[in-house]
Design brief:
It comes from Haladaptatus paucihalophilus DX253. By secondary structure, the chain is mainly α. It is built from 6 helices and 3 strands.
Amino acid sequence: MSEAETVSNVETARDLTAFQQNVLIVLSEESRYGLAIKRELEDYYDEEVNHGRLYPNLDTLIERGLVEKSELDKRTNEYAITDDGIAVLLDSFEWRFRKFITNDEREEEIRALLEQ
């Protein structure tokens, strides 16, 4: 990844809302259709996530190139995180956990945990 791409990903990560980052986290496990994303987020938030919140945020993530949308069937879209989306999540995690990273070995351990 070039320095320009890294800067772009850092800026993008900082511009995302917590909800958008949580959508990326859900998609980091596997591609999902909208209602599956909604259910996963509802389990996390322990409250209903309405369509008016989910789909505009998915559209924003698609516009930023962090999520791809494809047609699963005539009525259902599937959403998948892109490589840029993963890079944004990793940058966000690294920023949050930077105080725990004390040396190269520890950084590798944290990266391995995040990749699981």
